[in-house]
Amino acid sequence: MPTTVPAYGSEAAERLASMADVTASDAALRRFLHGLPGVDAVGLQARAATLGTRSIKTTAKAYAIDLAISMIDLTTLEGADTPGKVRALCAKGAHPDPTDRSVPKVAAICVYPDMVATAKEALAGSGIHVASVATAFPAGRAALPVKLADTRDAVAAGADEIDMVIDRGAFLSGRYLDVFQEIQQVKEACARPDGTAAHLKVIFETGELQTYDNVRRASWLAMLAGADFIKTSTGKVAVNATPPVTLLMLEAVRDFRDAVGVQVGVKPAGGIRTTKDAIKYLVMVNETLGEEWLTADWFRFGASSLLNDLLMQRQKLSTGRYSGPDYVTVD
Known about the structure:
Low-confidence stretches: 1-7
Shape: globular
Radius of gyration: 19 Å
Largest sheet: 8 strands, parallel
Oligomer: single chain
Structural class: alpha/beta
């Protein structure tokens, strides 16, 4: 994934400029967001369930497993994280199976801001990105200057990607312009002096947004504000990524590109633990957005335990038997 500030084509720039009136005031933004088509919850859930029944076998399954591995943001976001744990996770991300160098490396290692420098050093030359949560993750309950300082510190330490959380309280209170402007300012804080910028993933915490309509509104709000990715969850609440919510967000990025000409990525996070689940999401991406989005540039899995199951299933395909429980590391 490139880390330079995207240069939109002239047509996309014109389309974005034509939507400036949408975000000119809180009232205008509210009218636009509440004017989006309502979500057919029954239809959405039925579509997600149908896509989840697709059967992927043999060669296609092997391809899907490797693709899923290459899309993982391998994550450790615990209060007990240490430099040693982060370095070990980086080593695993670079060589997920030390006995088989044909296994692809993961897309990124995701850590707290104070661990970015450690991860950056451990991953030097690997091509794996360092992602950092920021903006008072996971609750997002901090003053804006604190959130911006959190972001700038992570970028200065070498973060290639920033995963920010929106102010759900402001969003649910209908203060859409406040949320929009905060995303814009965090986006500006992702810029580096050399003209490049960390990519910005905007986390909604969909389990707290209450309705599918709110998920659609949050998706459009974040994309209008400049999000490079939209992300379901922090992984720190009871309800995280679900197939219907992810499908809704995939449809939102499709519709946004059709309307504006700007492509945005999607990252489901939290609760995706098995190969079977990961493949369901890949089928959903392919059926909704097509092969163009089936790369780590445009789709990621936020996960800590998914990689182990993918490795176990990959080994099963190649040898015909499951390995023992000590085949993979427990992170």
